[in-house]
Amino acid sequence: MKKLLLILTVALMGCGGFSLDQKDAQATAEKAIKLISERKYDELSELYTNDFKAGESKEVREEKFNQILDAIGPVVSYSLLDSTNLVVTETNELVLKYDVKHSNVETIEEYIISMESGKCEISKINIQQKNL
User: Fold this and answer.
1) Could you tell me the pTM of the whole model?
2) Of the listed ranges 11-15, 28-32, 50-54, 114-118, the one predicted with least confidence
3) Fewer CB within 10 A of the end CB, N or C, for the chain?
4) What is the domain-level CATH number for residue 112?
5) How far apart are CA 22 and CA 92, in angstroms?
6) Rounded to 5 degrees, what are φ and ψ at 107?
7) 75-88 and 119-129: which strand pairing?
């Protein structure tokens, strides 16, 4: 009986929220990689969840991206390293981790994608220099 309850609980947890399509999530993350490299922040902000937009002002976020890009340079190439499905309360999130080669350094970039308003949107971005 306990095993059945555990299996049912795990199955129900996996059904919460909207289902994320991996291809759509990757397309969103890869569009963000390109827009960041091209410093097209207005277009980039259209990919954010409402909570991510509200986390800090557009000007502060743009200044951070400019500082990072001045140091690492534009994107030369990128490849997907890993993807992980997360179930957080009633929402599903997909964590996509990329190896991104820039003109000056190589980075590991993590994009957390969730469903909002029926489409894949970015709820978090993390950019770190590789091998640090």
Assistant:
1) 0.82
2) 11-15
3) N
4) 3.10.450.590
5) 12
6) -125, 160
7) unpaired
The reported pLDDT for the residue numbered 87 is 76
Q: Are 121 and 107 contacting, i.e. CB atoms less than 8 angstroms apart? A: no
The per-residue pLDDT for range 28-64, each reduced to its tens digit, is 999 999 999 999 999 999 999 999 999 999 999 999 9
Residue 11 is predicted with a pLDDT of: 35
Least Cα distance to 15 among 83, 85, 92, 84 occurs for 92
How far apart, in Å, are the Cα atoms of 17 and each of 70, 89, 90?
A: 38, 8, 5
Domain that holds residue 14: 2-129
Angle ∠(19,117,61) on CA atoms, nearest 5? 105
For residue 16 the two structure tokens come to: 């919460």
Q: What number of H helices and E strands is found in the chain?
A: 5, 4
Q: Could you give the number of structural domains in the chain? A: 1
- Distance (Å, rounded) from C-alpha 4 to C-alpha 19? 24
